[in-house]
Amino acid sequence: MRSMRWAWGYIRNYRDRFFISLSLSLVISALNMVNPYIAGKIVDKVIFGHQTGLLMPFLGTMIGVTIVKTVIRYNYQLSFERISQGVIFTLREKLYDRLHQLDFNFYDRTKTGDIMARMTGDLEAVRHFIAWGIYMIFENFTILVFAIVFMFSIHPPLALVMLAITPITGFFAYKLAFTVRPTFTEIRGQFAKLNSVVQENISGNRVVKAFAKEDYEIDKFSVQNKEFKEKNLLSARVWEKYLPVLDSLAGVFSVVMILVGGFMVIKGSLTMGQLVTFNSLIWAVNNPMRMAGWLINDLQRFIASAEKVEDLLNTKSKITNQIIQYNVKNFNGVVEFDHVSFSFGDEQVLEDITFKVIPGQTVGIIGPTGAGKSTLVNLLSRFYDTAGGEVRVDGVNVKDWDLHKLRGNVAMVMQDIFLYSDTIEGNIAYGNPEASIESVQFAAKVAEAHDFILELPDGYDTIVGERGVGLSGGQKQRIALARAILKDPTILILDDTTSAVDMETELRIQNTLKPILKEKTCFIIAHRISSVMEADLILVLENGRIIERGKHEELLKKKGYYYHVFKTQFGNFDDRNQGKEVRCI
Ligand SMILES: Nc1ncnc2c1ncn2[C@@H]1O[C@H](COP(=O)(O)OP(=O)(O)OP(=O)(O)O)[C@@H](O)[C@H]1O
User: Fold this and answer.
1) Cβ within 8 Å of residue 249, ≥6 positions away
2) Can you tell me which atom of ligand 1 is nearest the CA of 544?
3) Could you name the CATH architecture of 333-409+491-555?
């Protein structure tokens, strides 16, 4: 029982409470034998034995036992609920922590809907089992054992007859468990798919509307929804096939009891009171049998969900942090790529990339779409590890730097800009929450964002919607740039950061950035020549290889790829001024 062992690892923290609660549950199981016993005694002693004086003490005891049972049950049910909430709290925290440790490789291949299913439905199934399933299984099992022992102590032959039916019930309960289990796994998998469709559609609702694909998406959802319904029905069909059998077997107990027991009373080998006790104990054998199906159901759900949660918790990041500690607080910013290669699966994305850049220098990276520009800078932050060669920062392989330190010294404005549903100030100060409003405003000014922010209804306190809804593409880019500037990194990476900004604003940003970049190492990825032409080193990437390198003027002289892109973007230009004046028009 791998899942149970796994769950015990968490329940163990509440060991005392857990065992006290189980003991209380055991007491309840034992107390359940008292009233059938007294019922038999009332028949034998009070009704047939005419000892009427015993009636009130017997009834009083029955009422007392019932009250005690209620109080104890309330307490241990609450206790199991507490344990389950504690376990789920820890699991949720651990899962969230794990999600933050996992690398790009994981997020590249995992759907958000699947993660959400684990964080919600699966955790709830685990919680439900700990809060309810465990004690119900224990309680039903112990009641069954007590009832059997009690029956044998009263009349072994009748107890044996009753017990003869039990293996048949056990067989069907076992069959149900193993037939129903795969259906639960399928239901759980389908639930994750359904979640993914909903999540993708909500996130991509603008695309859906722009392409008028509402009907298509509704149909797509219906297919998954129908599949979910079918899988649930399939599970229910398995269930419905076995439940009547289990119920009927429970009914057989009563019939056998009346038949055999009645015969024994007539023959005089069993008293009427003993038959009443046996009769009162039928539920104690019956009920666990009937509940077995439900409990197996819950157990299977728990196993299917626990495996998914455990799986996620055990998922390892390919990017592992190094323990080597260098006594350095801030980086200098010397970046070297030494014969670096990288591939996504079978696709070779970067090949033999070699260059070096020192603090104060800016590297411009240009090249056709899919050339590997973003991947190159992703290797610098160690979002992925190189397949060959080394990326070094300040002479140390990035794999040997503490990840936190490495990424703490790098600020990256990614192509796909993400803003939180928070104030503009909160978004800019994300990497440096302690920053004063003056520093936030300074960063915004450098990013040419200050003026438009002031025009927003609440200025820096304006709350932007999820992913920055309410801002234009260029505005979002400038907020993201301000966020990176405020972090004051040693290495600044701008991946297509000004693509949605007009050229005039871009030029102003370049000018305000200049003094800031003096002591930093900067990478600018762009499709516009105007974004990289001032760089100290321009790398032209094609199919993962550097095909040209040098400064703007040198590259123009080569009359290669760079020259042609420049010509396309700037039209007829005067070769002697190399486009500089044209650019400023
Ligand atoms: N997460 C990923 N998984 C698999 N392949 C990927 C992944 N990210 C990028 N690629 C592939 O790697 C290649 C390089 O992608 P990359 O994003 O580095 O190009 P790029 O030069 O930055 O392109 P663009 O200018 O369009 O941003 C592409 O062929 C792309 O399909």
Assistant:
1) 165, 168, 169, 172, 289
2) 14
3) 3-Layer(aba) Sandwich (3.40)
